[in-house]
Each structure stands twice: as C-alpha cells, then as structure tokens.
Design brief:
The complex is a heterodimer of chains A (about 160) and B (about 200). Chain A has a domain of about 50 residues: Flavocytochrome C3, Chain A (Flavocytochrome C3, Chain A, domain 2, Orthogonal Bundle), CATH 1.10.1130. Chain A has four helices and no strands. Chain B has a domain of about 130 residues. Helix content of chain B is about 60%, strand content about 0%.
Chain lengths: ~160, ~200
C-alpha cells in the first residue's frame, strides 16, 4: 500500500517536471554566436584576400606557412598544379618565390623521391591564404620563444628576490 | 542544262522592259539592307553566350569552368563571356573566325566531345589550338580590354611589372605566353613551357 502510494507520488512529480521540450532552444555560444537553433542568421562577410600581405612569421616551426597572396582560381589537380608553377625547384629562383620544402619529396615510407610526392601534392590541404579575418575564438597561445622568455624572466625575478 | 543557263544569261543581259531604273536601283538598295543586315544579325546571334551554351558540350564543360573565374564573376560587374575572348571583334577577322568555327558544327554533329571522357581526352588538343591562335594574333582578344599603354606598372606586383615592362613591352612575348588557363582549367601540362 505504502509502496504503491510512493510510486504514484513519484510518477506525479515526474509528470510535473516533464514539460514539452523547447523546439527552438537557444544555440550554444560557440563559433556561431547568438540566436536559436532554428533561426537562420545572415552569414558573416567573407574575409578579404589581401593581395600582397607580406610573408608571416610562423607560430611554431612545424606550422605550414600561410600563403601571402591570393590563390583565386588556382588549379591543383591531376593535370596541373598552379602553385608549383612558381614554387617548384626549377621555377622558384626566377619567380622569386620560396621553393617547396624538400620534406615534400618524402613519401609515406620516408623515402626521398626526385619530385613532390602525391601525398604532399595538394598544397591547400595544409597551406591556406592569409586573410584579414578576425579569430572566431580568443586564443592565448604563446609560441615556444615566448614561453621560454617568460620562464627566464620569472626565474630571474625569483633569483633577484631570493 | 546549257539551254537553261543560256536562258538566264540572256534574261540577265537584257535591259529591263517593265521596271524603271529608279525602281530597280531603289529595290536593289533595300534588298541590300535587308540581306546585309540579316546576315550580320544572324552572325551576332552566334556570338551570344546563349548560343554557345545551347550545346551541352560547352555548357557542361568549359562554361562551368569559366563561371568561377574572375573574368565571369567579380566585384566590379564587368564580364567577359565566350565570344569576347574567342571571337575577334573586328569584322573581317570575325568572319574568318566564324568560317573556321564551322568545323565545330561538324564536331557537334558527330559528337567528338559529347562525353566528359571524350572532352578530357581532347582537352590538350583544344587548348593548344586556342593558345596557338592567340599567340598568332598577338593576344588580340585580350587586348580588346587590356591595353598595354594603360597599364600602371607601379600598381602591379614586382614580378608582374618586371615581365610586362620587358618581355611584353618588347613584343618578345604576348599575353597568352604566361596567362594560360585564366578562364578555363588547364589540360595535362606535361612538356608545356610557361615563360618564367
């Protein structure tokens, strides 16, 4: 008797809490800010492609360098690679372009080949043009030099106080 | 046959009996306007984008490739369509080009490039024909819009201004020598030398 009463109470309290789910919940504030899930917001403007932004310093040594020029309509396929038209070993000096890194000649078995290997052929898989886009999320990334400098400064300060 | 020819020859040689000289001159003049105007109008129709992409060979291959390029879609709204680059604007050369293009009708009838595979197989040949044509006429169609005299070298990047002020200025090279594949995708470029 007591048990069944308890169960009914429990079911009743559950039914009170189970409201109809909100079909238009607010979207999590991630990369897409504001609005609800069902709402269509106007797309943000496409960041411009600075034609001749200078070469950028890499954030870390392994970073694929960003492309400091527009690559609109560049053809990179089986037939032709427009990037290598200037960045290949033979064309680079005359074109005044940095030569493709020889790491790109190494295939997946670490064998260095005579030319760019197929797995490093599609430039835009790693390299992207530098645009004037503002970062979508804040980043407090510091590169190794900064971290080391900070650490050195901290130690010096500690040494000074001791 | 001989009799028939002779009849018309005598008919044409004989002075007009019923019509005045004024009537004949005026009607000849009017007929001239109609035929000449009609000929040019018909030729202009074959110069429109709508005409070019009426065939799926053009619509699904080269026109699709053109659409993404700067010559078709750009911020200032100036567009170069098929005939702007592939047909000379000057009348005499235009008629010459149109006569050459009659072979394309043959190709269309017999379906020489009517599948993507056939088009892909012929891509290099077709591209080379067009490069050769533009090389031979000193990139005439490019120069209809892009004038050498109007170029401001200081607004070009260093490499472009170096090439334009030397090789292009001296006439040693022409537009197409460097600017291949600006409006369509390039074929397999094995062995093709770009001017560096």
């Amino acid at each position: 008797m007591k048990l069944s009463l308890l169960l009914t109470l429990l079911l009743f309290s559950l039914s009170l809490h189970a409201e109809a789910p909100d079909l238009n919940a607010s979207a999590p504030d991630g990369l897409r800010k504001g609005g609800t899930l069902g709402q269509t917001l106007s797309a943000p403007p496409i960041p411009g492609d600075p034609r001749d932004s200078g070469r950028e310093v890499r954030n870390y040594p392994e970073q694929p360098p960003v492309i400091p020029h527009s690559i609109r309509d560049y053809q990179i396929d089986k037939r032709f690679n427009r990037c290598l038209d200037c960045h290949s070993t033979s064309a680079a000096p005359a074109a005044g372009a940095p030569m493709i890194s020889i790491t790109h000649f190494m295939d997946r078995d670490y064998q260095v080949r005579a030319a760019v290997t197929p797995n490093r052929y599609f430039c835009t898989q790693c390299h992207v043009p530098q645009t004037d886009a503002r970062p979508l999320v804040e980043s407090n990334f510091l590169n190794m030099d900064h971290v080391l400098q900070q650490e050195a400064a901290r130690r010096q300060q500690q040494g000074g106080t001791q | 046959m001989k009799k028939w020819l002779k009849f018309y020859w005598t008919l044409l040689r004989r002075p007009s009996v019923h019509f005045s000289l004024g009537f004949l001159t005026l009607s000849g003049f009017l007929a001239g306007i109609i035929f000449w105007g009609g000929f040019n109008t018909a030729m202009e129709v074959t110069n429109t984008e709508k005409f070019c992409i009426a065939c799926h060979e053009m619509r699904d291959n080269v026109f699709e490739e053109l659409k993404t390029t700067v010559h078709y879609s750009n911020r200032s709204g100036v567009r170069a369509t098929c005939s702007d680059c592939h047909v000379p604007h000057n009348w005499t050369h235009k008629v010459g080009r149109k006569m050459e293009a009659s072979k394309e009708v043959w190709g269309w009838i017999f379906g020489t490039i009517n599948t993507p595979e056939k088009f892909e197989a012929k891509r290099r040949e077709l591209a080379e024909r067009e490069w050769h044509r533009l090389k031979a006429n000193d990139s005439l169609e490019c120069r209809n819009c892009h004038e050498f005299d109007s170029m401001d070298f200081t607004r070009q990047n260093p490499r472009a201004s170096r090439e334009h002020s030397t090789a292009l200025a001296s006439g040693e090279s022409t537009c197409i020598d460097c600017h291949k594949g600006i409006a369509h995708q390039l074929p397999d470029m094995t062995g093709v030398v770009f001017r560096q």
